[in-house]
Design a protein that fits this description.
With 152 residues, the protein is mainly α. Helix content is 49%, strand content 7%. It folds into two domains: 10-61, no CATH class; 75-140. Helix 3 packs across helix 4 (92-102) and helix 4 packs across helix 5. The longest helix is centred in the last third of the chain and has 18 residues, at 106-123. The relative contact order is 0.10.
Length: 152
């Protein structure tokens, strides 16, 4: 399915949470998308995908026209992500650090962007090099941090 660039899609992250109550919330969003002529994009973890195909939700499952699977970012993807989204310049060493720490997960790369922008503000710089952030954790995995905190 190719998206019409003139139509703004409606994106529902964690879409599996909209399946309760015979997917009433999802049906409501589908009506809005249909009236607007916009695609409705459902995002969920791959472990939740099968829930959309349950027989009680056939009215939803039969409307899913395609499925995509996100793979971890490559080093080149990570460098481009930082170049496009980080408000400060970063060098190849930082891109490599972010890629290794995030293991290519975009959620953690977003965390790194916030961390890098904070570092730059504190250092009063518009670009950073690997030596500016050497030894620091750039990508915070909140779930991992919470699990560690729970053990304390």
């Amino acid at each position: 399915m190719k998206l019409d660039r003139d139509k703004t899609p409606i994106i529902l992250d964690e879409a599996q949470h909209a399946l309760e109550n015979k997917a009433r919330i999802l049906e409501y969003l589908r009506c809005i998308a249909q009236d607007a002529g916009s695609p409705l994009i459902l995002v969920c973890h791959s472990s939740e995908r099968s829930r959309f195909l349950e027989s009680r939700l056939a009215h939803i499952g039969t409307r899913i026209s395609s499925q995509s699977e996100f793979k971890p970012a490559t080093l080149d993807d990570c460098a481009l992500y930082l170049k496009e989204l980080c408000e400060v310049g970063v060098d190849a060493e930082i891109a490599d650090m972010v890629h290794k720490q995030s293991r290519g997960r975009y959620r953690l790369m977003t965390s790194a962007v916030n961390t890098l922008e904070g570092f730059a503000a504190k250092l009063k710089k518009d670009s950073l090099t690997g030596s500016d952030v050497k030894g620091f954790l750039l990508c915070e995995d909140a779930m991992k941090t919470l699990r560690k905190g729970a053990k304390a």
